[in-house]
Fold this protein.
Amino acid sequence: MPQPQTIFPAERTMRIAYVVPDINDAAVARRVETLHCGGASVTVAGFRRDDIVRTDVDGAPTTDLGRTIDLNLKQRVVAVVRNLLNPRKLDESADAPQLVIGRNLEGLALAIKLRRRYPNAKLIYECLDIHRTLLGSSPKDKAVQFIEGKLLKSVDLVIVSSPAFRREYFARRPSLSAPVELVENKVLALDQPPEPIAQMQPAPPWTIGCFGNLRDRKSFDLLCQLARKMDGKVKVLFAGRPTWPIFTDIAAEIAEAPHVEFLGGFKPGDLHSLYSQCHFSWAIDYFEEGLNSSWLLPNRMYDALTFGAVPISLNTLETGRWLMERGVGMIVENPVAENVAAKLEALNLADYTTMRAAVTALPRQSLILDRAECDRLITMLASA
């Protein structure tokens, strides 16, 4: 006889074990805060991409599984295997969780290992990126795809941040029978939702912000060339964490680029100040061009729209489609560099005012993750 489905009422605390690829990622902290807001008790285990060893994330106790290196798949696989073969720290990271969430593929592999210790727990796969190896045809790629197929069989629910991940990828994975739910990368605002900033003077230099994880060399070069070509009519601001070795000394590179500034790293509370300096936000990603970059809906799109900056995106990307469906943004076609330059060269006060008004008219619920959304997320997880 089938067991009745367990739903966790608001007065009870759901215990969640969260296994992540980078404990120090700001997006991990945002997800933990979201789960806390929904009434969950959370523990976090995972790797880190720097030397900072944390004891908690938003009050959730953490277990450090070691350091891994960006863009070094072999080293990350070795780190995962090491923890699978010696899972003591992983096993001790949680206390009888009712849900185990694995963030991205390396988190999923370890989450499955942890769930074996707590077989009554539900297993959630939180997929924020589709790595290039999952779409390639080399022997190494096929090996990773085989492993992923085995892992997917254990999953009770998949969470994705873009409908394209579900449509273009998971719908084509025959080993996956679990439902796939969309949870967008909205701006977490539990109390008073942030309002769009006061409008900048709508005149040149038109300022474009590119804020977040800086890993896209092609966009970086394109924006620097755009600022040089426009000779004072366009200014570009970068802020965030550069990915090594794509950028070994971004400050030095920018020092050689006219009309471009690097504002350093930032915290979520700095977004208002950052976007107060921008007319536009760069919402084109080439990091995995034609693959993951075509499908994602990045944090920076929601951040920009929340604070009133106009996103610039490409019509063939999922980001561009999202914006076009809502009638917002500066949407360009290929070739991007030439078309962005032409649009900015011809831009006038009336055009920009119209674009800005469309952004500020967007319903806030399409951009903001509030307390009600946190509750809905917990209800969805509990129903897995």
